[in-house]
Amino acid sequence: MAQSGRAVVIGGGIGGLTAAMALHQRGRQVTVLERADSLEPVGAGISLAPNALRALDVIGIGDEIRDLAAWQGDGVLRTPGGRRLSRADADAAAERFGGPLVLLHRATLITSLAARIPQNAVRTAAGATLVDAGDTDRPARVRTSDGEWEADLVVAADGIHSAVRRTLFPEHPGPVYSGFTTWRVVVPVPDGEFAPHETWGRGRLWGTQPLKDGRVYAYAAAVAAAGERAPDDEKAELLRRFGDWHDPIPAVLAATRPEDVLRHDVHHLAEPLPAFHRGRVALVGDAAHAMPPMLGQGGNQAVEDAIVLAHHGDDLEAYTAARLPRTTAVVRQSVRAARLNLMTNRAAIALRDTAIAGLSKAVPGLLLRSFDPIAGWRPPQQPYASGITTAGKR
Among 108, 138, 336, 365, which residue carries the largest CB count within 10 Å? Predict the structure, then answer.
């Protein structure tokens, strides 16, 4: 259904640009206000699960992103010494969920989205403040250094520390520290072939994923005090924590320069918001439901938000009803996954590893089933590439 009126999107990340593209396709006059000097994203790789790829199909770029995605072969879960705990069968996952899990650089996705939004619609170095959320009788108002904008719809995609969220819901406690910090790097592929892997240690985690362009995306996490930083540099910190783990981790670290390493403490919204909208303003992505990264669903859920929001148009009650229960469940599952991944008790770790190894042999598809409610999601409207109707059934 065609829509009309102006939409102002605060934030030019994945959620904001997806919303801008979807709203533009539905006839809205769209303006994106991004406070940074460019749309170059902070971060490295992003995994897109079948749920997000179906959402991107709705706006016509799902197959393009699949083609741009990194090679994603079978994955392996290991201990720091290299012992295999389980193997993730990429073909089985694609068959079950109606599509692959793909990995690409965030910049690739940002570029693809931005290219389909009118060039003059994106304004960088444009910090924005919500002045009035509006209601049925008046538009919302957003202030920038260049003046004010009136809008029939404001999309707040301004991240985990969202100023718009604080304005709409001042009594909400906001994000809490998740108890761990993360590192991310993108570096040239070290010599030798290796399968994508994730490795769980005591209060620590490492993952290595090959990218299609010949580089490697590596990520790490560790239980740490909030705000803690290395006394020298973060590459040295990674060497201290992971330098004696199995191959190819030492080779990846050897190829890493200190300036390649991004480190961020992880926060999430432990208490769900009462709604994802107020007045004429809707929250998407981390502004609405920030979560730990262990399920790789932060960006995926932002893409879902954007497509569902554009589908419902001005009916923001329907948007909240569609998104709040689902994202609350995904946040809670992500928190549980983080606790499982980053255990510190030695006896509990031994029990966890034994259980994973045993269950993976006895019931090979068990771990995949836990992902059914997430990857099996479908957009509220077609087209999308998958012919799947329920997880695992065509």
Answer: 108
